[in-house]
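Archive transcription. Copying these from loose printouts into the bound notebook so they stop getting lost. Printout 1 of 2:
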Amino acid sequence: MKRDSRLSGVLHVLLHMADADGPVTSEALAGMMQTNPVVIRRILGGLRKQGLVQSEKGHGGGWRLACDLDQVTLYDIHVALGAPDVLALGHRTESPGCLVEQAVNAAMSDAFSEAEALLLDRFRTITLAALSRDFRLRRKSGERECDNRK
């Protein structure tokens, strides 16, 4: 089962941007994330619409944060990404008329809803500033930064 890692990837990109002295190009961010610059531009374009990042064209241009790290939470980023499903588990739907499948799906729906609510509530408590502080502490302690950072 493929996992949706967009939130993790976007947070990674945003923390690199927060650590940069100026704008960061899509190409540089793509190198850090081992992806295509088009993917970075598409994702950051959506975040720009939410007022979280801004772009500057021309020589010396690139992407920069347009938000206060203390005010933006993981939940805000999750919503900016379109609020994708946070759980990879799902229901079996091959036999919707089957009473066993109905009972199982009803029980699982309640559990999924509760788990998702807990996770999203936790996302509301974690700011980009907290992630940035954690990153900087790890760097000070001598831990290795991203191997793919250029």
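Printout 2 of 2:
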Amino acid sequence: MEVVVTGIALISSLGESLETSWKNLTLGCIGIELEQPFPELAALPLAFIYKQPADVKQLTQLAVADALVDAGLEPPLPDCGVVIGSSRSQQAVWEELIKSKVESQKSKVASTADSHSPTPEFSETLPNAIATIAARQIGAIGIVSSPMAACATGIWAIAQGSLLIETGQCQRAIVGAVEAPITPLTLAGFRQMGALATTGAYPFDRHREGLVLGEAAAVLVLESAKIAQQRSAKIYGRVLGYGLTNDAFHAAQPEPTGRSAIAAIKQCLERGNLTPQDIDYIHAHGTATQLNDKREAQIIQYLFPHGVPVSSTKGATGHTLGASGAIGAAFCLMALRHHILPPCTGLRSPQFDLDAIVTPRRATVRHSLCLSFGFGGQNAVLALGK
């Protein structure tokens, strides 16, 4: 059963809507600034949506509402599947609860502190909370799933939603990922690993420093082509195929040969009845870390020796972890629609022999590929077509 995309919502450091984010991306804008949201930690380049860390619940509700409006749908939608994931989910809430508890114990006035700091509903602090929040918002009473696959989460969610429609379990699904990962623990963890940049994100650049954390919500409405056509819905593009594999190698480092990532790309192309020559644009994972960019460039060179235009948009949006693949899918669909390839923002001195897009490029785009490679060896690939 053919699966099409009829609605997109994107909230990022580039803008609070899909159109604004896309426009600013193609204008070469950068949503990254030097920030110090937590006094105990030094200032770092970060990609905030607002002036302070966003609330993941509110981001989810805004993105779901925007996606439905864009698709021309109104709740309740009881038969709509929900697959919305996050790699950090409610971590900020948990950190704040622990901090409050520690401060209360230190001051020995726990009862007073508790009276002024109401504890959130327990179910809304769980990792799957954003999916259940979205389900209540649209009145969905069917399948609800909340994947958590590190930086591969967004594409994994789109793949799961597509599979629900392909297998006839539902005719419509709202999918994507939401991240508000800028918390003291997340920053401290990535800093301890030596993965954070100090001035900005420069994917595939020989002077790249590491990743820049960013916030975002990217939600798509998927429908069977049949019901989309029946209601004369606007169609951004088709989900042609997807591939999901795991390195089974290391908790943080990618497997050096890239064999599992290569298998995911081949799996995706095979499912979509595509060959490497059919791909007109690749939205790379491109985290601007030393290991990821080197391995990803090698994989692209191996599978696409004929040369395919490539860009990573994390130099503009920051690395939004689990939401990054869903953002990439949204930008791929805009490239299909407008026949403009988005730039690899931050790339000044290319290290690898890729057809990297430095400035927006006009091109005929029929098929695009979106890559996501996450910690734990999670590999996710999505093929989209006009």
